[in-house]
Write a structure and sequence with these properties.
The complex is a heterodimer of chains A (449) and B (256). Chain A is mainly alpha-helical. Chain A has two domains: 282 residues, ABC transporter involved in vitamin B12 uptake, BtuC (Orthogonal Bundle), CATH 1.10.3470.10; 114 residues, no CATH class. In chain A, 72% of the residues lie in helices and 1% in strands. Chain A has a two-stranded antiparallel sheet. The longest helix of chain A has 30 residues. Chain B has a single domain, classed as 3-Layer(aba) Sandwich (Rossmann fold). The longest helix of chain B has 16 residues. The chains are: A mainly alpha (449), B alpha/beta (256). At the A-B interface, α8, α9 and α18 of A face α4 and α7 of B.
């Protein structure tokens, strides 16, 4: 087990070797986070997966060629050139299947991915016996620890080039991903932009093979932008976040992998990214799950409050004109809407909490007495609700686009003039218009029970 | 019946045929559209209305024929063209604001690499103002209603500041207030000398909205001023035996 000192010295990059590895993977994470965002928005993530798997045979073949040419077969540049060629061939194969047959994208992708990966496995088995082949498997699962300074230089150069290109062409890529037809109609070379995006993705994938491995590099392209999307609705912020999440996954993942000699870096980087993803999914400030649940609960509470106060007001209306604030039998409230006893109790204690009913009456008393502010709120809500309903009836043709709000916003959305006009239609009782629909009367509801 | 094609025509189409996978989608289309008209393109589903627009915009290959914008091929005069694609053709969950989308209308003038600046934002905001939703400029596009999204697309086309507009079903699934706003906008465009070609579905309003009509059903059934071509005969030739539609149209004719 690593000691605390080991952990600190690794995470804080105190040893030269860790510094190299972590710098390299973080740089890679940054570049893949940014290109991955565009790939995701272009809905081409699957293509990245086909690409990375299809690099496998290229690595084996490049190795065999280099060995038979008399070299050691371990020249990184040579291996990555092989990977690039076969990766691109894999994507072309996928595109060819898609464009010449009626097969769908996922079928074409599955075919290209598995056939190329299978070929890679066969080639690997054949070259395995050759001297020096032992390191090749690190391209499958990634072995960041084997990185040396020159590797990091290469990753950094590629990373900076890729990131720089993506940011320079931010507006062009945004247009391409959002509306390809419009881009083409205004004269942007859509095909060439698409190819350029693919080149960037290929560059990130191939340089990432050594650190993350060909099976898991796709996670580096997909997870950071997906996680970033939970935090923002702006493309620029999403790119920054995605790059940061990628870099952080690379840094933490590679650090942990450096502590445990046998754990592959690729796996740990993916797991780190997945942890960040999970956190973002739950707590994301733009579309996180918890935020959504909170919003939902808040809406539910507001609607519940409106229903309760409106029901109370409608009952008071039946108790005599002019409407005055008097105690309401709980039983009548219960029958006024389809509330269960427990639901009504919850609404009442909530109303008690908001000072809408008098202290001393509430969830468990048989008479409910609205407070002064509760009565005012009840008449306001009832009035607004009726104005909405009337607006729907009198302006049915334009109403649906305006009436997606709750009772609170009637003046805000319709404007004072329209509200005055609606109120005029509701005379002779302008303060609180009578309901445009029939309210079940006291006598009928009590005779039903 | 091939026509002459005067060079000052905003749109002239000569002998156009478009085919997808062995099957011709539209054939022998020959059109001259005069300047400053609101042109409705009508026809049943699958008649090739969108295909005609896309072929005019050079988005799909032509099997034969040519299309000219003000007497030149599309490539040479595309700066004179504005395009409103079908609303469903894009993903409205995309992480951009209404203003970002409208600013896309200025990208071509902006050119490579240069980011959207103050001037472009002002143009975009002005366009949003014209379609009546400037107050929604900063809103993420998924939080807009269908009608508002359609207005964003129209604003983007306005930001293009074109002379000929191609609009693919701008009235599809919008509320009546938006429909009215679009009609007003189209009339303003026409009154300032622009030409608008609009794919339209509602035969009940077509005669009221447009002053020139193209009846399309794989080939051009009729093209001309609404008063001359909007009649029972052309409707029957375009829509065939689809009776419910014909009743609809008959009613519209009675009203007009």
């Amino acid at each position: 087990m690593p000691t605390l000192h080991d952990i600190l010295s690794t995470v804080l990059l105190q040893s030269y070797n860790t510094r190299i590895v972590v710098l390299g993977t973080a740089m890679l994470g940054l570049a893949s986070g940014i290109t991955g965002a565009f790939l995701l928005l272009r809905k081409r993530s699957l293509m990245g997966d086909a690409l990375s798997h299809a690099t496998f045979p290229g690595i084996g073949i490049a190795f065999a060629v280099m060995v038979s040419a008399g070299g050691s077969g371990k020249d990184l540049l040579g291996l990555l050139t092989g990977a690039t060629i076969s990766g691109v061939l894999g994507v072309l194969c996928m595109l060819a299947i898609r464009n010449t047959t009626r097969l769908r994208d996922d079928v074409a992708m599955g075919f290209a991915l598995s056939v190329f990966f299978g070929t890679g496995a066969a080639v690997y088995a054949m070259v395995q016996t050759k001297p020096g082949a032992a390191g090749l498997e690190s391209f499958i699962y990634g072995k960041a620890a084997s990185m040396v300074f020159s590797d990091v230089v290469m990753i950094s150069v590629v990373g900076i080039l890729v990131t720089g290109t993506a940011l320079l062409l931010l507006k062009e890529f945004m247009l391409l991903c959002f509306d390809e037809d419009f881009a083409a109609s205004t004269g942007w070379p859509v095909l060439r932009l698409d190819i350029l995006l693919l080149v960037l993705v290929t560059a990130v994938t191939v340089t990432g093979l050594q650190a993350v491995g060909l099976i898991l590099i796709i996670a580096f392209l997909i997870i950071p932008p997906t996680a970033a999307r939970f935090w923002t609705n702006s493309l620029r912020r999403m790119l920054v976040l995605s790059g940061a999440i990628g870099a952080m996954s690379g840094w933490l993942g590679a650090s942990v992998s450096a502590l445990f000699a046998n754990l592959p870096a690729g796996a740990l980087i993916v797991l780190t990214a997945a942890a960040i993803f999970l956190f973002s999914m739950l707590f994301g400030s733009a579309r996180g799950v918890i935020l959504k649940l909170l919003d939902q609960a808040k809406l539910q509470r507001r609607i519940g409050r409106q229903h309760l106060l409106r029901a109370a007001y409608e009952i008071l209306e039946t108790m005599g004109q002019p409407v005055s604030n008097q105690p309401i039998p709980r039983q009548e409230l219960l029958e006024h809407r389809s509330w269960s006893n427990a639901e009504l109790s919850r609404l009442l204690s909530q109303a008690r909490h908001e000072d809408h009913i008098e202290p001393g009456t509430g969830a468990d008393t048989s008479l409910i007495h609205l407070s002064e502010s509760g009565f005012g709120e009840a008449s306001r809500i009832t009035r607004n609700h009726r104005l909405w309903e009337l607006y729907l009836i009198t302006h049915a043709e334009i109403a649906p686009s305006h009436v997606d709000r709750d009772a609170d916003l009637v003046e805000h959305i319709l404007g004072a003039e329209m509200v005055r006009a609606l109120e005029a239609e509701l005379k002779p009782r302008p303060a609180i218009p009578s309901s445009p629909h029939r309210i079940p009367s006291r006598s009928s509801s009590s005779s039903a029970t | 019946m091939l026509h002459e094609h005067p060079p000052d025509c905003p749109l002239s189409v000569h002998d156009l045929t478009v085919a997808y996978q062995r099957k011709p989608v539209i054939w022998d289309v020959d059109l001259n559209i005069p300047e400053g008209k609101l042109v409705g393109i009508v026809g049943p589903n699958g008649a090739g209305k969108s295909t005609l627009l896309k072929a005019c915009l050079d988005l799909i290959p032509k099997t034969s024929g040519w299309v000219n914008i003000y007497g030149e091929p599309y490539r040479a005069n595309r700066h004179l063209v504005g395009y409103v694609p079908q609303r469903e053709s894009v993903d409205w969950d995309f992480p951009v604001s209404a203003l970002d989308v409208v600013a896309m209308g200025t990208y071509r003038r902006l050119g490579w690499f240069r980011p959207v600046g103050k001037a472009e934002k002002a143009v975009a905001l002005e366009a949003l103002e014209k379609v009546g939703i400037a107050h929604l400029a900063g809103r993420q596009i998924s939080q807009l209603s269908g009608g508002q999204q359609q207005r964003v697309f129209l604003a983007r086309a306005l930001a293009q500041d074109a002379k000929v507009y191609f609009m693919d079903e701008p009235f599809a699934a919008v509320d009546a207030a938006t429909e009215q706003a679009i009609v007003t906008l189209l009339q303003e465009l026409r009154n300032s000398g622009r030409t608008c070609l609009v794919v339209h579905h509602d035969l009940a309003t077509v005669a009221q909205y447009f002053d020139w009509l193209i009846f399309l059903n794989l080939r051009v059934v009729a093209s001309g001023p609404t008063a001359e071509v909007f009649n029972d005969d052309n409707l029957r030739k375009t829509y065939g035996g689809k009776l419910s539609l014909l009743d609809h149209a008959a009613e519209a004719i009675r009203r007009s």
